C-alpha cells in the first residue's frame, strides 16, 4: 500500500529528526560572534540636526545651510572662532593673526608649520590667497539692474558671505615663508577680526591644490600665478576671465554632494574630524583626523550626525537612547517634556534672533507723539511672560536695538538709551499724548508664525485701550516678506538676526535708505556715527559708538525691540561638555569638549 | 473606446449587480416602498443609529456653544480671547455637570480650549460637509454623463478626471490656500478651503458612478424608458440615479470622514486652516508636542476627530447596507443549514 | 486590446503634458522662494536675493519657465542617451539623484506595510463577512475605523512611547509583573472569544483557553528569560510546523485529502532536517542565498507533492510547497532570534534595539543577520503605523465584496451540490471576491510611491513624501516636478493596469479595441 509506505517514510523522517535534535540537545542554532569586533567602540557621540547635509562647501549660496556650516566647523581650522560669550578667540595653534598697523589697517596671517590637509599637503599661503580671492569678490565685475538681473559682467565665486570687508583689501602677496599673506585695507574695517579665517564660517576650507587641479590648472602654483596676474574686476569695464571662471565653476558646485564622494580630495579636512561615511538624508559619520594637533583636541573618536526634523521625534529619539544631543525647535511643551526625562540635561538660553515692532516714520505715525503713544501701550513684559518665559525662564524684554542681552555692552546701552520709559504699559500716558485722537493703525506681521500672531494679538488689545484703532494687516508666510517696506502698513512685527559679533549689520538696518531699513528711519546724526563705526577697529570705541546710536534710535521713537527668541538643547547624561551657544553654530561650538561618560 | 463594462464596480454582469430596486423588490419586504425599505434597514442597524445620535449631539454642541455666523452661543468665551490661566491651564471639568471655568483647560497663552475645540469641530464639520456635497455633486455629474453618454463625452471627461487625479492634492491645497489668504483674508478661508478640496476630491466617486452607469444603462428598464420617449435628463435622474444612490452615498460618507483626516494632515504640514481660525486638525497638530506634558491639548480635539470619523463611517456603513438590496443579513451557518436539505 | 492600450498610453502622455503645466504653475504660485532672505539684516542681503533669483530664474514668468524645465525633461524620453535633466534643487542636487534615492527609501518603508495591510485587511474582511453582525464583525470594524481615524502622528507618538521606549526599558530588565500577565491574558481571552462562534458556551471556553494559554506562555517565557535570549528551537519548530501543515491542508485541500496532508507533513520533516543541515551555511547568508533556498524549498515541495501523486496532484503540490516555505520562514526567524542578543549588545545599538527614527543604525556593520535585525527594528514602528491606518479600507472593501458574492446564485448552487463549506468559501467565493479588489490594489500600488508624507516625517524617513513637502516649503519647483512625474506616470500606468487586469480577471468584462 502506498499509504503505508508514506506513513513509514514520515515516521522514519520524524524519528531521524528527533534523534538528531536529541544529539544536538537544546543548543539549537549556534550563536556566532557576529559584528562585535572591529568597531570603533570608544567615544562615539550621536548628535541630531534638523537639516540634511548637502555640501562640503558651506560658503556658496547653495551650500550655505546650517548643517553644512557645522560640518565645515568640525572638519576645518582657522585663525579665530567665537565662544559662547560671543567673544572672538584666536586659535594660535593653527596660525597667527597679527595687526601690523592700525591705520592704514594691515593684518598678517601666518599658518603654523606642520598644519596639513588630510592628504598630507601643507596648508600654506596658496590656500590663504585662494580663500581671499573667493571671499573678497576681487574678480567680480557684474552690474545688476533693479530687478536683480545681471546686465553685464560676471559674478565668479558665488560666495554667500559679505564681500564688503575683504573687498577693501588690495591683492595680497604671499610671504617669504610661503605660509602667510598680508591683507592691506584701503580704509580701516571694523570687523577685520572676523573677516578672514573665521572657523564658524568654515575657516580656511578650500584646498588650493584641489581647486587648481579640478579647475583645469596644472597645480597650486599655477592658481597663485593666475590670481596674481588676472586683472581685478571692474563693473565699468567687464572682461572675460575664462580660467578664473573654470576655477569658480568648480568651487561653486564641485563640492555639493549628499553622499561621500569616491574622490577623497573633495572632502579634505584640516580640522579635528574628517567625514568617513554618509547615508544621504539620514546620517553622517565624522571620525578623528589622525594628524590634527593644531587647535583644541577633541575627546571623542567619532561623531555621528543624524537628521531628524520633527521636535517630538527628536525628543523621543533622545529618550530612547538612540541619540545623545538634540537641539529641537523650542516650544514650551518640548522644554517641559525634556525636563521631565530622566538622565537628560536641558540647556536653555537666548538665540541671536529677536522680534521687534517697527513703526513707520510716515502715514499715521509721522507724528512722533503718536509713535510714542503707541510704544507706551506695548505690553512687553506680558509678551515675554506669555510667549518666552515657559521656554526660557530667565527671559526679559529686550531693551536695546543694537545689543543682545548676551553681549557685554548690553547693560550700559539699556540703562542709558531711555528704554525704561517703556518697561511698563502706560495707557494713561498714551491717552494724554493722543489727546483724544483715535488713529487707525494697520499692523503687518507673518500670520503663520504663532509667536508673531500672539504678539500682534496682545499688542492690538493693549493699544485699543488707549484709543488706537488697530487693523489686522497680517499676511501669510509667502507674502509678508515681500510686503516689507512697501508702505501698505503702519507698523510691523518681525524678527532680525543679530550676528552677535561685528558691526557691519548695524548700518544695513538703520542707515538712511539702506536695504533693510524698512520703516524710513533717518537720522543724519546716526548716519554719521555709523559711518564712523564701520571704520573703527577698536572694540571699546565700537561699543561706545553703538551705545550712542542706540540712544538716538530710541529717542526717535523708532519702535520697540520685544524679546529674544529662546533656544533649547538637551543631551543625555551619558555625555558631558556641552554648553549652550546662542549663535547658529549652536551646541557644536565646543565639540572638542564633548566627552562620553565611561 | 474605453472599457465596455465598469472597472470600478464590485461586480459587473447586468442583473447580478446591485440591481435596480423598483422592478424587483426583495420578497421579505414586499409591499414597502424603496424609501421604507431603506429606512427600516437603516433603523435596524444599531451601530448606525448610535452613531447618528452621537454625531447629532456633537453637531448641536459645536454650533450652539460658541455660536455660528454672528449668532452668539451659550458658552462664555470665544476661541481668540486671551485669558488668565486658571488651574495652570489644566481642564477644570470634574463631572458631567460641573464644568468649571475652562472645562477642557487652556492653551499656552490662555485661550479657552473648550471654545477652541468647539470652534474647531464646527470648522471641521463645515469643511467635511462642503467637501462631501461638492465632491458628491461634481463626481456624480461627471460620472453620470460619461457613463451614460459614452463616446467622446466619456473620453474627454475621464481623461480630465485623470488630470485631476495626478495633480497632488497637497500641492493644490497649498497653492489654493495661499491664494485664498491673499484674496479674502482669514474670515472665509474655511469655506474656500472646503470648496477647493471638494473640487479636487471628486475623482474617485466619478469613476465609481461611471461604472455604475455603464452597467445600468444597458438594463431593460432604461430601454423601456427610452421607448416610452423619456428624455436623457429624465432617464439619468429618474431611472438610473436612484439605482446608483447606494454607491454614491456610501462613498460620499467615506470621503467625508477621510476629508477630516486630510485637513488634519494638511494642517500638520502647514497648509490647512490658518490661525487665528482653528480646526481640529490645526489645534491637534499645533499641540502635538504637548502629548506628554499637557495631554488635554491633544486628547480633546483628538477625541472629537475620532468620534466624528467613527460616526460618519458607521452611518455610511449603515446606509450602504440599507441601500443595497442584495446585501441582506447573511449567516454562514444558516446558509449551510438551508443548503443541507438540498444536498441530501 | 493592444490598440486600446496604445491609445490609452498616448493619451497618458498628453495628460502628463497638460497636468505638468498646471502643476508647475501651482508650484510657482504656492509661495515666496525669497521669504527667508527678504527680512534678512545681512549686509549682503541684496546680493543673496539676486543670487537666488538667478538660480531659480525668478525674473522669467512662470509659464515661460515651464518650457525651460520641459526642454530638460523631454531629454528623458530619448532612450539610452542618459541625458535626462530634471533640473536641480535649491541646494544644487540633481533631481534625478534625489528622486531615485527617495524612491528607494519610500519603497523600503511602504512595501512591507502595504503587503501586510492587503493580506491582513482582506483576511479580516473575509472573516467579518462570514460572521456579519457578530461581535467579531463589530469589534474588527470598530478597531479598524478607530485606527483609520487616528491622526498618524498621534499613532506614531504612541507607538514610539510604548513600542520602542517602553519595550526597550523592559528589555533592560525583562521581568513581566503579574498584573501585566493578567491584562494580556484577559485581552487574549477576549480576542479568542470574539473569534469563537456564536454560542455563549463556546465563547466562554474560548475565553478561558485564550487567557490560560497566553498567561502560561508569558509566564514560561519570562521564567526562562526568553525575551533577552529568544529562539524557537527544534521542538517548537516541529510542533508549529505540524500545526502549519494541518492548517494549510485544511484551507487548500481539506483534511480528507490524505495525500496533501502527507506531502505537507513530509515537508515539515524535511524542514526539520534542513534546520540542522543548512545551519552552517547560514552563517554566511546573503539575501540571494535566502531567495535561492526559498526557491529550492518550493521546488522540493512541489516535487514531494508530485511524487505523492493522486487524482489531484496540484493540491498536494501547492500544500507541500506552501508548508515548506513556511517551515523555511520558521528556520530563518529562529536564526534571527538567536542573533538577537549579539545585536542588542552591539556597541552601536547599546541595548536599545527598537528604534524610533531612521532606517538603520549609522555605522553598524555586521552579517546579514545583524543587518536584517537592524532593518527590522527600524521598520517595525513605521510599518505598524501605516498598517494600522490602512487596514480599514481593505477590510471594508473585501467585506463588502465577499458579502455580495456570498449572496450570488452560483454560491447557492455550489452549496446545493453538497460541497463542503470550505470548498464553497475558498474555491468559489473567495477567488471571485478578490476580483474587484485587484482594482483597488493596483491603484494603491500606483499611489504607493507617492510616499506617506506624515509617516516619513515623524519617523525621519527621507522618502518621496518628504522630498515633496520640503520642496514645497521652499517653493523649489524642480523637485516637485520630479516627484509629480514619477507619481503621475505611475498613477496613470496603474490606472490602466487596473482596467486591463479587471477585464483579464473577470471574463465578463471585455475591452473594446
From TrEMBL, chain A:
Instruction: Please verify whether the record's keywords include Cell wall biogenesis/degradation.
Output: no
Write down the CDD domains for this protein, in alphabetical order.
Answer: PBP2_Lpqw (cd08501)
- Keyword Amino-acid biosynthesis listed: no
Recorded GO cellular component terms are:
ATP-binding cassette (ABC) transporter complex; periplasmic space
Q: Do you know which InterPro entries this protein is assigned to?
A: Peptide/Ni-bd, SBP_5, SBP_5_dom
Residue span, Solute-binding protein family domain: 100-515
Q: Which UniProt keywords apply?
A: Signal
Question: Which is a GO BP term held by this UniProt record?
Answer: peptide transport
| Name of the molecule in the record | ABC transporter substrate-binding protein
In its UniProt entry, the species of origin is given as Arthrobacter pityocampae
UniProtKB/TrEMBL annotation, chain B:
Pfam entry (one): BPD_transp_1
Keywords of the record, alphabetical order, are: Cell inner membrane, Cell membrane, Membrane, Transmembrane, Transmembrane helix, Transport
| Record membrane topology | Multi-pass membrane protein
Q: Which PROSITE patterns match?
A: ABC_TM1
Keyword match Ribosomal protein: no
Kindly list the places in or outside the cell where this protein is found, as annotated in its UniProt entry: Cell inner membrane; Cell membrane
Give the transmembrane ranges.
49-75, 125-149, 156-176, 188-209, 240-262, 296-316
Biased amino acid composition, Polar residues:
1-15
* Family listed: Belongs to the binding-protein-dependent transport system permease family.
Identify this protein by name. ABC transporter permease
User: Species name for this entry?
Assistant: Arthrobacter pityocampae
Automatic annotation (TrEMBL), chain C:
* InterPro entries named among the record's database cross-references: MetI-like, MetI-like_sf
GO cellular component, as recorded:
plasma membrane
Q: Where are the transmembrane segments?
A: 9-27, 107-129, 136-156, 176-195, 207-228, 234-253, 260-278, 284-307, 319-338, 376-394, 434-460, 480-505
Residue stretches making up the ABC transmembrane type-1 domain: 103-502
CDD domains for this protein:
TM_PBP2 (cd06261)
Annotated membrane topology: Multi-pass membrane protein
**Keywords annotated in UniProt:** Cell membrane, Membrane, Transmembrane, Transmembrane helix, Transport
Task: Cite a single GO BP annotation.
Answer: transmembrane transport
Keyword presence, Phosphoprotein = no
Q: Where in the cell is it found?
A: Cell membrane
Similarity section: Belongs to the binding-protein-dependent transport system permease family.
Q: Can you say what this protein is called?
A: ABC transporter permease
Amino acid at each position: 500500500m502506498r499509504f503505508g509506505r508514506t506513513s513509514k517514510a514520515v515516521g522514519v523522517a520524524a524519528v531521524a529528526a528527533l534523534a538528531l535534535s536529541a544529539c544536538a540537545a537544546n543548543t539549537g542554532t549556534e550563536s556566532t560572534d557576529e559584528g562585535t569586533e572591529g568597531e570603533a567602540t570608544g567615544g562615539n557621540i550621536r548628535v541630531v540636526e534638523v537639516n540634511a547635509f548637502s555640501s562640503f562647501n558651506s560658503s556658496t549660496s547653495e551650500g550655505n545651510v546650517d548643517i553644512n556650516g557645522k560640518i565645515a566647523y568640525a572638519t576645518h581650522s582657522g585663525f579665530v572662532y567665537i565662544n559662547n560669550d560671543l567673544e572672538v578667540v584666536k586659535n594660535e595653534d593653527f596660525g597667527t593673526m597679527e595687526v601690523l598697523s592700525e591705520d592704514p589697517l594691515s593684518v598678517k596671517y601666518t599658518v603654523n608649520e606642520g598644519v596639513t590637509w588630510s592628504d598630507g599637503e601643507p596648508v600654506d599661503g596658496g590656500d590663504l590667497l585662494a580663500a581671499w580671492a573667493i571671499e573678497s569678490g576681487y574678480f567680480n565685475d557684474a552690474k545688476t539692474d533693479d530687478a536683480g538681473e545681471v546686465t553685464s559682467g560676471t559674478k565668479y565665486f558665488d560666495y554667500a558671505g559679505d564681500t564688503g570687508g575683504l573687498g577693501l583689501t588690495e591683492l595680497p602677496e604671499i610671504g617669504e615663508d610661503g605660509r602667510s599673506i598680508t591683507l592691506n585695507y584701503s580704509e580701516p574695517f571694523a570687523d577685520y577680526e572676523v573677516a578672514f579665517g573665521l572657523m564658524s564660517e568654515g575657516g580656511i576650507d578650500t584646498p588650493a591644490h584641489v581647486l587648481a587641479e579640478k579647475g583645469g590648472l596644472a597645480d597650486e602654483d599655477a592658481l597663485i600665478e593666475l590670481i596674481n596676474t588676472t586683472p581685478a574686476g571692474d563693473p565699468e569695464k567687464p572682461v572675460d576671465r575664462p580660467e578664473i571662471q573654470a576655477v569658480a565653476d568648480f568651487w561653486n558646485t564641485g563640492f555639493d554632494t549628499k553622499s561621500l564622494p569616491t574622490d577623497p580630495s573633495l572632502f579634505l579636512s584640516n580640522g579635528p574630524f574628517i567625514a568617513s561615511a554618509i547615508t544621504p538624508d539620514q546620517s553622517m559619520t565624522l571620525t578623528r583626523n589622525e594628524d590634527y594637533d593644531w587647535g583644541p583636541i577633541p575627546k571623542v573618536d567619532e561623531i555621528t550626525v543624524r537628521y531628524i526634523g520633527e521636535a517630538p521625534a527628536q525628543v523621543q529619539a533622545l529618550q530612547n537612547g538612540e541619540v545623545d544631543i538634540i537641539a529641537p525647535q523650542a516650544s514650551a511643551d518640548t522644554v517641559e517634556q525634556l525636563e521631565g526625562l530622566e538622565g537628560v540635561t536641558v540647556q536653555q538660553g537666548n538665540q541671536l534672533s529677536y522680534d521687534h515692532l517697527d513703526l513707520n516714520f510716515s502715514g499715521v505715525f509721522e507724528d512722533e507723539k503718536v509713535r510714542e503713544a503707541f510704544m507706551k501701550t506695548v505690553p512687553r513684559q506680558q509678551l515675554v511672560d506669555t510667549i518666552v518665559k515657559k521656554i526660557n525662564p530667565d527671559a526679559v524684554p529686550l531693551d536695546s536695538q543694537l545689543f543682545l542681552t548676551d553681549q557685554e555692552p548690553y547693560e550700559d546701552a539699556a540703562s542709558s538709551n531711555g528704554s525704561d520709559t517703556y518697561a511698563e504699559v502706560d495707557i494713561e500716558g498714551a491717552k494724554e499724548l493722543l489727546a483724544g485722537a483715535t488713529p487707525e493703525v494697520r499692523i503687518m506681521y507673518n500670520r503663520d508664525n504663532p509667536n508673531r500672531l500672539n504678539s500682534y494679538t496682545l499688542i492690538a488689545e493693549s493699544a485699543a485701550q488707549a484709543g488706537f484703532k488697530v487693523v489686522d494687516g497680517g499676511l501669510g508666510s509667502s507674502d509678508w516678506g515681500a510686503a516689507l517696506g512697501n508702505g501698505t502698513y503702519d507698523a510691523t512685527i518681525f524678527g532680525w538676526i543679530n550676528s552677535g559679533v561685528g558691526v557691519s549689520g548695524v548700518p544695513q538696518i538703520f542707515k538712511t535708505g539702506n536695504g533693510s531699513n524698512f520703516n524710513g528711519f533717518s537720522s543724519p546724526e546716526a548716519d554719521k556715527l555709523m559711518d564712523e563705526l564701520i571704520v573703527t577697529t577698536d572694540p571699546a570705541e565700537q561699543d561706545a559708538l553703538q551705545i550712542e546710536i542706540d540712544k538716538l534710535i530710541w529717542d526717535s521713537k523708532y519702535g520697540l525691540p520685544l524679546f529674544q527668541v529662546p533656544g533649547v538643547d538637551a543631551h543625555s547624561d551619558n555625555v558631558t561638555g556641552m554648553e549652550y551657544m546662542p549663535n547658529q553654530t549652536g551646541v557644536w561650538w565646543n565639540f572638542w569638549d564633548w566627552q562620553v561618560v565611561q | 473606446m474605453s472599457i465596455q463594462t465598469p472597472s470600478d464596480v464590485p461586480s459587473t454582469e447586468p442583473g447580478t449587480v446591485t440591481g435596480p430596486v423598483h422592478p424587483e423588490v426583495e420578497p421579505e419586504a414586499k409591499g414597502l416602498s424603496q424609501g421604507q425599505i431603506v429606512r427600516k434597514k437603516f433603523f435596524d442597524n444599531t451601530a448606525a443609529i448610535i452613531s447618528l445620535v452621537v454625531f447629532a449631539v456633537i453637531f448641536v454642541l459645536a454650533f450652539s456653544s460658541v455660536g455660528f455666523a454672528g449668532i452668539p452661543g451659550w458658552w462664555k468665551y470665544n476661541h481668540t480671547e486671551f485669558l488668565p490661566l486658571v488651574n495652570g491651564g489644566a481642564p477644570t471639568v470634574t463631572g458631567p455637570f460641573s464644568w468649571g471655568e475652562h472645562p477642557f483647560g487652556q492653551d499656552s497663552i490662555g485661550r479657552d480650549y473648550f471654545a477652541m475645540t468647539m470652534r474647531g469641530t464646527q470648522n471641521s464639520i463645515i469643511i467635511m460637509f462642503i467637501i462631501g456635497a461638492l465632491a458628491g455633486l461634481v463626481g456624480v455629474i461627471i460620472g453620470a454623463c460619461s457613463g451614460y453618454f459614452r463616446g467622446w463625452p466619456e473620453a474627454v471627461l475621464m481623461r480630465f478626471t485623470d488630470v485631476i487625479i495626478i495633480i497632488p492634492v497637497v500641492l493644490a491645497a497649498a497653492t489654493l490656500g495661499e491664494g485664498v489668504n491673499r484674496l479674502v483674508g482669514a474670515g472665509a478661508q474655511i469655506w474656500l478651503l472646503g470648496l477647493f478640496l471638494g473640487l479636487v476630491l471628486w475623482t474617485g466617486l466619478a469613476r465609481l458612478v461611471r461604472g455604475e452607469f455603464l452597467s445600468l444603462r444597458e438594463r431593460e428598464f432604461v430601454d423601456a424608458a427610452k421607448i416610452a420617449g423619456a428624455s436623457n435628463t429624465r432617464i439619468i435622474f429618474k431611472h438610473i440615479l436612484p439605482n446608483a444612490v447606494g454607491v454614491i452615498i456610501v462613498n460620499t460618507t467615506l470621503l467625508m470622514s477621510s476629508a477630516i483626516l486630510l485637513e488634519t494632515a494638511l494642517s500638520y504640514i502647514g497648509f490647512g486652516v490658518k490661525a487665528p481660525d482653528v480646526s481640529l486638525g490645526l489645534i491637534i497638530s499645533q499641540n502635538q508636542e504637548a502629548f506628554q506634558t499637557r495631554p488635554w491639548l491633544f486628547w480633546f480635539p483628538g477625541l472629537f476627530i475620532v468620534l466624528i470619523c467613527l460616526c460618519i463611517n458607521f452611518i455610511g456603513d449603515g446606509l450602504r447596507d440599507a441601500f443595497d438590496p442584495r446585501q441582506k443579513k447573511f449567516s454562514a451557518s444558516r446558509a449551510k443549514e438551508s443548503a443541507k436539505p438540498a444536498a441530501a | 486590446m493592444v490598440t486600446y492600450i496604445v491609445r490609452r498610453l498616448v493619451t497618458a502622455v498628453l495628460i502628463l503634458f497638460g497636468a505638468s503645466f498646471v502643476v508647475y504653475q501651482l508650484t510657482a504660485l504656492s509661495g515666496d522662494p525669497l521669504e527667508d532672505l527678504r527680512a534678512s539684516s545681512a549686509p549682503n542681503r541684496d546680493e543673496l536675493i539676486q543670487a537666488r533669483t538667478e538660480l531659480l530664474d525668478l525674473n522669467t514668468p512662470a509659464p515661460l519657465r515651464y518650457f525651460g524645465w520641459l526642454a530638460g525633461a523631454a531629454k528623458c524620453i530619448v532612450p539610452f542617451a542618459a541625458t535626462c535633466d530634471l533640473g536641480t534643487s535649491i541646494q544644487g542636487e540633481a533631481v534625478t539623484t534625489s528622486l531615485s534615492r527617495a524612491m528607494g527609501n519610500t519603497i523600503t518603508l511602504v512595501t512591507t506595510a502595504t503587503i501586510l495591510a492587503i493580506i491582513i485587511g482582506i483576511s479580516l474582511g473575509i472573516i467579518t463577512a462570514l460572521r456579519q453582525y457578530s461581535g467579531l464583525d463589530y469589534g474588527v470594524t470598530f478597531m479598524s475605523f478607530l485606527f483609520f481615524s487616528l491622526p498618524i502622528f498621534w499613532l506614531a507618538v504612541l507607538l514610539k512611547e510604548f513600542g520602542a521606549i517602553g519595550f526597550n526599558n523592559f528589555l533592560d530588565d525583562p521581568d513581566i509583573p503579574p498584573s501585566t500577565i493578567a491584562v494580556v491574558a484577559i485581552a487574549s481571552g477576549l480576542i479568542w472569544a470574539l473569534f469563537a462562534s456564536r454560542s455563549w458556551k463556546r465563547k466562554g471556553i474560548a475565553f478561558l483557553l485564550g487567557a490560560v494559554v497566553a498567561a502560561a506562555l508569558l509566564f514560561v517565557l519570562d521564567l526562562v528569560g526568553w525575551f533577552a535570549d529568544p529562539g524557537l528551537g527544534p521542538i517548537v519548530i516541529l510542533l508549529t510546523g505540524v500545526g502549519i501543515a494541518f492548517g494549510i491542508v485544511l484551507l487548500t485541500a481539506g483534511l480528507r485529502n490524505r495525500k496533501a496532508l502527507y506531502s505537507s507533513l513530509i515537508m515539515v520533516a524535511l524542514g526539520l532536517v534542513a534546520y540542522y543541515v543548512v545551519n552552517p551555511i547560514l552563517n554566511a547568508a546573503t539575501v540571494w542565498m535566502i531567495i535561492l533556498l526559498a526557491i529550492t524549498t518550493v521546488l522540493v515541495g512541489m516535487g514531494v507533492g508530485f511524487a505523492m501523486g493522486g487524482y489531484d496532484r496540484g493540491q498536494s503540490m501547492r500544500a507541500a510547497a506552501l508548508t515548506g516555505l513556511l517551515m523555511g520562514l520558521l528556520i530563518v526567524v529562529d536564526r534571527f532570534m538567536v542573533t538577537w542578543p549579539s545585536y542588542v549588545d552591539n556597541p552601536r545599538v547599546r541595548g536599545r534595539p527598537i528604534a524610533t527614527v531612521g532606517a538603520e543604525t549609522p555605522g553598524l556593520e555586521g552579517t546579514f543577520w545583524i543587518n536584517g535585525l537592524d532593518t527590522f527594528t527600524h521598520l517595525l514602528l513605521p510599518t505598524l503605523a501605516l498598517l494600522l491606518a490602512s487596514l480599514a479600507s481593505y477590510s471594508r472593501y473585501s467585506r463588502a465584496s465577499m458579502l455580495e458574492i456570498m449572496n450570488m446564485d452560483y454560491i447557492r448552487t455550489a452549496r446545493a451540490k453538497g460541497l463542503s463549506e470550505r470548498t464553497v468559501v475558498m474555491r468559489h467565493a473567495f477567488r471571485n471576491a478578490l476580483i474587484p479588489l485587484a482594482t483597488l490594489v493596483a491603484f494603491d500600488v500606483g499611489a504607493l510611491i507617492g510616499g506617506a508624507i506624515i509617516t516619513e516625517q515623524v519617523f525621519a524617513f527621507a522618502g518621496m513624501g518628504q522630498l515633496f513637502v520640503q520642496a514645497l516649503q521652499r517653493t523649489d519647483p524642480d523637485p516637485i516636478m520630479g516627484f509629480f512625474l514619477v507619481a503621475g506616470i505611475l498613477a496613470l500606468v496603474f490606472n490602466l493596469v487596473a482596467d486591463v487586469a479587471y477585464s483579464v480577471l473577470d471574463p465578463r468584462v471585455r475591452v473594446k479595441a
